[in-house]
Design goal:
two-stranded antiparallel sheet; 22% strand; 7 strands; 8 helices; 5-stranded mixed sheet; 219 residues; alpha/beta; 32% helix; disordered N terminus
Length: 219
């Protein structure tokens, strides 16, 4: 543990302070990533077709767009499973956009360069990271410091009843967490989630900021 110390307000004693090590101070810069994909099974069967990254300052409560790109593939070689993916049927994304986008490997390297040695999270780490970024061809496990999952932190806040025995609350969908937790509409979705990566990263960022302010999120 670091020998350096600082002083912070004690949440159990609003008039007092406690000594905290630097290791306990949350990072001021967190990168929030979101992906849109061809399916839920993960790589290598499924492919990332859209990626968005925001940079968040928890102390200032700011969200900055850092990166957004569709990933390019040879869609003529795709089978019906990929061509008829949910993302193409339910959003403004098209196969033409994928065919004309920068090559996927170039986007992957852009993301690697941006996230290397940074503090990173996602709304659903088990999906974005474990099923995609930590698998080939991304293979980014160990490239950055992973902090707490936003969705897991939002679960006891949103209190969406679970239909499964033994589980009190279900994991809230992003639009549910955004509507229940965030004041106003800072991400500018106007009541409808568009399921594009950058917009979803913005929504997740504001959920994280509000939970941090309310004492419900620790990186």
């Amino acid at each position: 543990m670091s020998g350096f110390r600082t002083y912070e307000r004690d949440p159990d004693n609003p008039k007092g302070f406690r000594i905290a090590s630097l290791d306990e101070i949350p990072p001021d810069e967190i990168y929030v990533l979101d992906t849109e994909t061809t399916g839920l099974e993960g790589a290598p069967k499924d492919l990332v077709v859209d990626v968005g990254i925001c940079r968040v300052s928890l102390r200032r409560g700011t969200v900055e767009d850092v990166y957004s790109s569709v990933l390019g593939y040879d869609v003529d070689s795709w089978d019906d499973y990929h061509r008829n993916a949910w993302i193409f049927e339910n959003t403004d994304m098209t196969l033409e956009m994928v065919a004309e986008a920068p090559p996927a490997i170039d986007v992957i390297e852009d993301v690697r360069r941006i996230l290397r040695n940074k503090t990173v999270t996602a709304y659903n780490i088990a999906y974005d990271m474990d099923k995609f970024l930590f698998r080939e061809p991304w293979d980014m496990k160990g490239e950055f410091t992973l902090c707490n999952d936003i969705m897991l932190a939002a679960t006891p806040v949103c209190k969406v009843p679970s239909e499964y025995y033994g589980r009190k609350y279900r994991f809230p969908k992003l639009d549910v967490a955004y509507s229940k937790i965030v004041e106003g509409d800072p991400a500018g979705i106007h009541g409808t989630q568009n399921h594009r990566a950058l917009s979803d990263a913005q929504m997740a960022s504001y959920v994280m900021i509000q939970m941090f302010r309310d004492g419900n999120y620790e990186p």
